[in-house]
Design goal:
Elements: E1 3-7, E2 14-18, H1 19-25, E3 31-41, E4 49-58, E5 62-69, E6 73-77, E7 81-86, E8 89-95, H2 100-114, H3 117-120, E9 124-130, E10 135-141, H4 144-150, E11 152-157, E12 161-167, E13 173-183, H5 190-194
Antiparallel strand pairs: 1-2, 3-4, 3-13, 4-5, 5-6, 6-7, 7-8, 9-10, 10-11, 11-12, 12-13
């Protein structure tokens, strides 16, 4: 069984904590939407690139990622495809049947946003700690090709994932902070629902 190491006392005693404990802490609404603030630091550049917007995770359907600043655009990820919209127009569509990496990218992103460690454990080594009402984990890619592209991912949260930090092997670093999270059918606007 997949376990995480948990320090249980100041004297350094350790106990194995199942990923199931973190899974039990996470809210698992069918629909979850909120705000994201993203900062990407590129190796060799001093000033990070910043973006913000809204995201929605819809169980069994996928993820909607709507960047509002600095430039509006929308990305919809489902099990079968990635679709990029500019305004109401589809500017790019990648199908998992013709692009096998699409399925893996979507699985990783959907699992990260939903905090689905059981799915992530298939592709990553998981290590971390669990507190009374919070947790944090570090993911390290199992496959060399994935490790070369992604490097490591750090997640922390409580009932929801609060932060994701992706440290790429190239030296680039992406930090995403989630806030104003709402759950339930009313969390998603009619415009967002129409994209699914």
């Amino acid at each position: 069984m997949l376990t995480l190491a948990l320090a249980v006392s100041a004297m350094g005693a350790q106990a194995a904590v199942p990923v199931a404990k973190i899974q039990a802490m996470l809210a698992k609404p069918k629909v979850m939407c909120g705000r994201f603030d993203q900062s990407k630091t590129l190796a060799g550049m001093k000033k990070p690139l910043a973006a913000s917007g809204r995201f929605c995770v819809v169980q069994e359907k996928g993820v909607l990622w709507r960047t509002l600043q600095p430039f509006p655009n929308t990305l919809r990820l489902t099990k079968g495809e990635i679709v990029h919209y500019q305004g109401d127009r589809v500017s790019m569509r990648l199908d998992a049947k013709t692009e096998p990496t699409v399925r893996m990218i979507n699985q990783v992103l959907f699992s990260l946003l939903a905090g689905d460690l059981a799915q992530l454990e298939q592709l990553f080594k998981v290590d971390g700690t669990v507190g009374a009402d919070s947790w944090n984990v570090t993911l390290e890619a199992r496959e060399p090709a994935l490790a070369k592209a992604i490097g490591t991912i750090r997640l922390d949260g409580g009932a929801y994932v609060n932060n994701i930090v992706i440290s790429e092997a190239s030296g680039d670093r992406t930090s995403i902070v989630f806030s104003k999270i709402e759950a339930g059918d009313k969390a998603m606007s009619a415009d967002e629902a129409a994209l699914f």
